[in-house]
Amino acid sequence: MKALTLLAAGDARILDIPEPTPQPNELLLQVEMAGLCGTDLHSFRGRNAMLTYPRVLGHEIAATVLTGTPDIPAGTHVTVSPYKHCGDCTSCRQGRENSCRYNQTLGVQRDGAIAERIAVPADKIYPSTLPLKSLCLTEPLTVGFHAVARGRVTQQDTVAVLGCGGIGLGAIAGAAAQGARVIAIDIDDAKLHVAQQAGATDLLNASAGDTPHQLANLTNNHGPNVIIEAIGLPATFRLAVEEVAFAGRVVYIGYASEPVAYETRLFVQKELDILGSRNAQPADFRAVMAMLAANRFPVDQAVTAIVPLAEAPSKIMIQMR
Questions:
Q1: Contact at 8 Å (CB) between 199 and 180?
Q2: pLDDT reported for residue 39
Q3: Full-prediction pTM beyond 0.90?
Q4: Positive or negative, the Cα torsion across 69, 71, 72, 78?
Q5: How far apart are CA 271 and CA 266, in angstroms?
Q6: Which of 28, 114, 270, 308 has its CA 20 to 30 A from that of 314?
Q7: 58: region left, alpha or beta (phi > 0 left; psi from -120 to 50 alpha)
């Protein structure tokens, strides 16, 4: 069968690979659609330290069950949680398998889903009647929803989200679902427009370089109660700490590829909660799927293009420009 395989940084090809052989606890799936996201582009650029080559890419999945069970019969449309956990590390023992010390994500530490067929553990499969495009968007949105949960967002909060890519849109939609006021921040007006449709109440284009001033104006000089960083740059890591309100919460989803220097007195003076957020929990999958079923997210606007598997390598090259 054919799969999008990254042989080395900058070298993605459609190759023939062996058919998957399902283990006793696994189901065989026909992949109908798989997202090509920022993580895949990061891997293509050679900037993903967790990835080794060669690697089949892809972890955002819409599929049809080929070999089913009484609970998930053949022909069922599903999405997939792409994370594999050990069950025995300190995170797993606390019920936080999403941050497993030995996590292996499809398309990163193990071969992914931009292939014709995959075998997946039954407990990682989420059946649904959602359209395939919505199923394919589920996993990236769950990452943003999980960050909202980590930030303990409520309807009393003003939340700023740095970055309106797929993950940031999930955080915006998740915060809006909690009834919070949401400030979307990006340098791309088109992304900000989608963010507004996802639930942002205020839009802030950061290209002018006066983000602190604009945030102060929007929050009566208090700053947002919660800032969610979904970009992964040293400058935005620092911005989150500098501009969040006193007694606020900072949630980092992205991570910078280089060390970040902080004015650490702000951690203490503001008595901040600084939180990491990794992957997602089953509750996040259920919440996102309920949101998509209620048509509360701009699915069509969030997908930039749909191409056949054969065109995937050239699509990566276009996205690099």
A1: no
A2: 83
A3: yes
A4: negative
A5: 8
A6: 28
A7: left
Q: Could you give the 3-state DSSP secondary structure of residue 227?
A: strand
Instruction: Name the phi and psi angles at 108, rounded to 5.
Output: -125, -75
Instruction: Indicate the residue type of 146.
Output: H
Query: Residue 202 in 3-state DSSP?
Result: strand
Strands of the 11-16 sheet, one edge to the other: 11-16, 2-8, 55-56
Q: Do 59 and 39 touch, CB atoms closer than 8 A?
A: yes
Alpha helices for 112-210 (secondary structure H): 132-150, 166-177, 189-198
Gap between the Cα atoms of 293 and 48, Å rounded: 33
End-to-end CA distance of the chain: 30
Cis omega (within 30 of 0) for bond into 298: no
Alpha helices by DSSP H, listed for 199-281, are: 211-218, 234-243, 265-269
Three-state DSSP class for 256? Answer: coil
Would you say how long the chain is, in residues? 321
E strand or H helix at 83, and its extent? strand 83-84
Per DSSP, what are the bridge partners of residue 33? 62
What angle separates helix 166-177 from helix 132-150, to the nearest 10 degrees? 70
Residue 299: its pLDDT value, please?
Answer: 96
